[in-house]
Structure of AMP-dependent synthetase and ligase:
Amino acid sequence: MLDLGRTFLQSVERSPNALALVDGDLQLTYSAWHRLILNVADGLRALGLQRGDRLLVVLQNRWEMATLHWAAQFAGIVVVPLNWRAKPEEVEYCVTDAGAKAIVYEPVCADAVVQSPAAQDIPRIALDDAPGGTMRFDGLIVEGRDAEPAPHATADDISLILYTSGTTGKAKGVPRRHRHERAGALAHVAQNLYRRGERTLGVMPLYHTMGVRSLLSMALVDGVFVCVRRWNAKLALESIAKHGLTCLYLVPTLYHDLLADSAFASTDTSSVRKLGFAGAPMNDGLLKRLSAAFEPELFVNHYGSSEVYTFSIDQDATKKPGSAGRAGINTRLRVVRLAAVSPDETAAAGEEGQIIADLLGDEAFEGYWNRPDANAKSLRDGWYFTGDTGYFDRDGDLYVTGRVDDMIISGGENISPVDIESVLSLHPAVDEVAVAGVKDERWGQRVVAFIKRREYIDGEGLDAWCRQSDLVNFKRPRDYVFVDDIPKSPVGKILRRKLSAGEYAPDSRTAAAQPTEPTKE
């Protein structure tokens, strides 16, 4: 299999004059970007980085970030992208755990870098005059340098290490080889039916698997990656119209923001023909609104992870709302019983269990970085235990119901938040909804719905809505709490643990509705 450097060369050779990268006023063709990438790769080598060394990069989605990612692939250096919102202790942990030989950063995250003792012992490459640097990013780019054109990596070399944002404990490093990354990008192209010359919005962060996949897949089809440094719905809409973007790959939260922006109605989004989402389930209400707003020719629900890029896909997300479809082209999936310790303890159709994936899949990682404890928990007999719950319906389609840790246990019943959220999302007054379990002396946990409203509705109205649905009685929320915002991670995942712990801002317009007495069926 080709390594990623040679993969990029394919597009340079096929379409040297095609537009490849956009960041504000900067526009680079594949030929021009290739020269810049080689120059940066040589700059990293001149700094002392060698094949297999780790480079920590703490940047927003800017042209320097995208260029460093590709430069590392050519040089055989392992790029370690980190959330630019990282705290000093997170930078410290990742510098030490990854054994980083250099760090690249910008002003927005400079304090975290400066306050990391380990970061002070390695070269610090600063952008935009960020304080604390040992050299400027411009110093990597030496005009007239005779850059080495040949990639230094092979398909078996490690391409990057992604640090997962776990809900508890230290983040886990996920090393992925060039062949894993190329297979994931090829699958993304195939499963989203990308054609040559597609144009996408580069807003999903390049420290996240979705952002990396968007970057790599555009290179596979000689496409255009339009950088959006920080999420802004209005700017995203302007980019769609200005650059004629053809495909979007976002988390549901960002799609919600696009539709909610006042500029959406007056923006020409007709160039967008393909929608894809991942990172979290999309509720039925948002699915319907997006389908009506964009009328896409393809609407893909992609379910995956940093460890195994694709678990499953559904290329017609509105046909069976909530379905994650079937295993991707590089993947084998099973659902095992919730208490299973072996991959052979499969659950019956319709039975909720834990989703697991075959580690022989071309996109699957081989184990966590320096974490034998995490490997022992998640890797069993050649299968990756995802920690996600779900079930196969009788047609063989997968439904993802949440995380094992998010499961609400009320009165001895296992209750998944996703089904309840789907029902409530269809109410016209509901803008966003998240369901979580809150401690209860009688029931262990009670089901609570946290609602961000589009227009006024109270708890009684929502309870009546649930009673009229096909939601079984024991799953009905016992409280409705109205909030200003649903707490989310930097990539848009709902943080149910914060809701359960009371870490949210109540809607100032009204107090929570009175709880209704639980009734068991």
